[in-house]
Write a structure and sequence with these properties.
Blueprint: H1 2-21, H2 30-50, E1 59-63, E2 68-75, H3 78-89, E3 96-103
Parallel strand pairs: 2-3
Antiparallel strand pairs: 1-2
Helix pairs in contact: 1-2
């Protein structure tokens, strides 16, 4: 239970820090997308951490302005890679997932 609470607090801190650093002086609308992207990325990372699988913490998560999540990094098995992709797909705000995770041999 401590790990879930800690993971949630970490994700919230990352999301809030990114929101605080977003530049509101930009009037072209890109700051809105920047905040949304980092919030989705934080949600996915928190869900991966909540699974308590140390192998999922070696996965890099990026999100573009269209809600597309890009996964990269290494996983010990194909099942671990597939689990990471499934977790990302089930996250609010994610429109699609590109799984670029390589499986260690």
């Amino acid at each position: 239970m401590k790990h879930v609470i800690l993971s949630s607090m970490l994700a919230l801190g990352v999301a809030c820090g990114t929101i605080a650093m977003a530049d509101d002086s930009m009037d072209n609308g890109s700051s809105h997308h920047f905040v949304k992207d980092s919030v989705i990325t934080s949600k996915v990372k928190a869900k991966l951490a909540a699974k308590h699988l140390s192998t999922l913490t070696r996965i890099k998560v990026d999100t573009d302005e269209n809600g597309v999540v890009w996964l990269s990094g290494r996983a010990p098995t194909q099942d671990a890679s597939d689990l990471a992709a499934m977790i990302a797909k089930e996250t609010d705000g994610v429109n699609s997932v590109h799984n670029g995770i390589s499986v260690e041999r």
